[in-house]
Recover the amino acids of this structure.
C-alpha cells in the first residue's frame, strides 16, 4: 500500500535519511577521494565502480548500465522502480561524476570537516549529490513510498566540459521523462534554479601579415590590432537588460615586440536568456568581418547549451517542490542564474525541469568547495518527497 504523503511521512523520510547520514558521507568520501576530473578515463571508471557497488545493494534497482564515453570514461544509468510499469513518464534524476579539479587537488585540499562544513574537491558539485541520490532511491522503498513512476538516475562523465557525449543521453532520457530533477548544487541559501542562461563558446582567429615593425611596418597587417578592434565590437554586444553577456576571456597572439603580428586569437563566452538571442549572437559572431581587409578572420564554435526558461511546466514543478519543503518545515526559494547545466538540454525539449536540487554548500569549482552536513537529510527528504508526489 502506498502511504499518504502527510507531514508525518515527510518527517519519517527525514528521520530515516538522518539515520543514514554517515552512510551517505562514507560513499561521498570514497567518491571525493577518487579523483575524476573530466577526461580522466581511469578516474571516471573508478567512481562509476563505487556507485555501482552501492547501487547493487538497493532492492528497487532494476538495471545498472555503464555507457562508454570515448576519451572521458563512462556514463552511468540506473533504473529503479517499485511498481512502476513501464519506462514512459519516468522521473529522471540527472547529475555528473566528473569534476573540474585536476588530479593532485585532493592532496592539496584533503577531506576535512569543520564547523558543520565538509570540504573536498568536487563534493558540492556534485559527488555528495550522487551518493545522496542512491540513498533517496533506497529510502523510497525502505519507507514504502512506492513512487508511481520509474526512477531513472543518469550520471554523466563529461558535464563540466560541455557534455559532448553526455548530451545525447540526457536528451534521450528527458524526452521520455515526465519531469527532470537536476542534482546540480543549489544557490546560496539552498535556492533551486528555475531559469538558467544558455551558453555559447566561440573562437576568433585572425590571420594577418608579418613584417619588420621598424623597417617596413606598412607591409604588415597586424592580427593583434585587428583582434583588439574585434574585442571592442564583441564587448559592445553586452546587454544586461536583455540578459546578454559576451566575454573575451582568453587571447593569444604575436611572436616578438618588433614584429607586426601575423596571428592572434580570442576565446569568447556568450550567455543569453532566450533562443532568439542565441540565434542573433551566433549569426553575428560567426558573420564577423575584418576591419582591415588584409586580415582574414576564421570564426568557429557555436551555441553549446540552450537556455532553461521558466516555463509554466517549470513553475508547476517548483510549486510541487515548495509544498514538500513546507511540509518539511522550510521555505524553498528559487533563483535565475547565468551558469548552464545539463538541465538546459532537457528544458529545451519542453519537459518540466527543476535544477539546483543539490545539498546546500558553497564554492563550486573553487578551493573552498564544501557542503553543509546538516542539509544532507533535509535535501534528501525534499527529493524523496518530490518523487513520491509526482
Ligand atoms: Zn555540476
Amino acid at each position: 500500500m502506498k502511504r499518504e504523503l502527510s507531514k508525518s511521512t515527510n518527517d519519517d523520510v527525514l528521520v530515516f535519511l538522518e539515520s543514514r547520514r554517515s552512510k551517505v558521507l562514507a560513499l561521498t568520501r570514497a567518491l571525493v577521494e577518487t579523483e575524476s576530473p573530466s577526461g580522466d578515463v581511469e578516474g571516471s571508471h573508478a567512481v562509476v565502480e563505487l556507485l555501482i557497488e552501492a547501487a547493487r545493494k538497493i532492492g528497487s534497482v532494476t538495471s545498472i548500465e555503464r555507457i562508454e564515453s570515448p576519451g572521458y570514461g563512462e556514463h552511468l544509468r540506473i533504473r529503479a522502480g517499485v511498481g512502476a510499469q513501464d519506462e514512459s513518464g519516468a522521473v529522471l534524476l540527472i547529475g555528473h561524476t566528473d569534476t573540474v579539479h585536476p588530479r593532485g587537488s585532493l592532496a592539496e585540499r584533503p577531506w576535512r570537516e569543520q564547523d558543520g562544513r565538509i570540504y573536498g574537491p568536487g563534493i558540492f558539485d556534485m559527488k555528495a549529490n550522487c551518493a545522496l541520490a542512491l540513498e533517496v532511491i533506497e529510502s523510497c522503498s525502505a519507507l514504502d513510498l512506492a513512487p508511481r513512476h520509474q526512477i531513472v538516475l543518469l550520471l554523466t562523465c563529461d558535464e563540466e566540459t560541455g557534455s559532448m557525449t553526455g548530451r545525447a543521453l540526457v536528451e534521450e532520457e528527458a524526452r521520455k521523462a515526465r519531469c527532470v530533477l537536476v542534482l546540480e548544487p543549489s544557490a546560496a541559501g539552498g535556492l533551486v534554479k528555475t531559469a538558467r542562461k544558455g551558453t555559447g563558446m566561440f573562437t576568433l582567429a585572425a590571420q594577418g601579415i608579418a613584417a619588420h615593425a621598424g623597417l617596413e611596418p606598412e607591409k604588415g597587417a597586424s592580427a593583434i590590432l585587428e583582434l583588439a578592434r574585434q574585442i571592442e565590437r564583441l564587448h559592445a554586444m553586452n546587454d544586461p537588460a536583455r540578459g546578454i553577456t559576451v566575454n573575451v576571456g582568453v587571447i593569444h597572439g604575436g611572436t616578438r615586440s618588433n614584429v607586426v603580428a601575423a596571428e592572434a586569437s580570442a576565446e569568447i563566452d556568450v550567455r543569453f536568456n532566450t533562443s532568439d538571442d542565441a540565434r542573433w549572437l551566433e549569426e553575428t559572431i560567426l558573420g564577423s568581418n575584418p576591419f582591415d581587409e588584409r586580415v582574414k578572420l576564421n570564426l568557429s564554435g557555436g551555441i553549446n547549451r540552450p537556455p532553461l526558461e521558466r516555463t509554466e511546466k517549470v513553475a508547476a514543478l517548483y510549486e510541487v517542490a515548495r509544498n514538500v519543503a513546507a511540509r518539511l518545515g522550510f521555505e524553498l526559494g528559487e533563483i535565475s542564474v547565468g551558469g548552464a547545466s545539463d538541465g538546459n538540454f532537457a528544458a529545451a525539449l519542453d519537459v518540466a525541469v527543476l535544477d539546483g536540487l543539490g545539498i546546500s554548500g558553497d564554492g563550486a569549482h573553487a578551493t573552498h568547495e564544501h557542503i553543509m552536513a546538516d542539509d544532507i537529510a533535509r535535501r534528501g527528504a525534499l527529493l524523496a518527497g518530490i518523487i513520491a508526489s509526482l
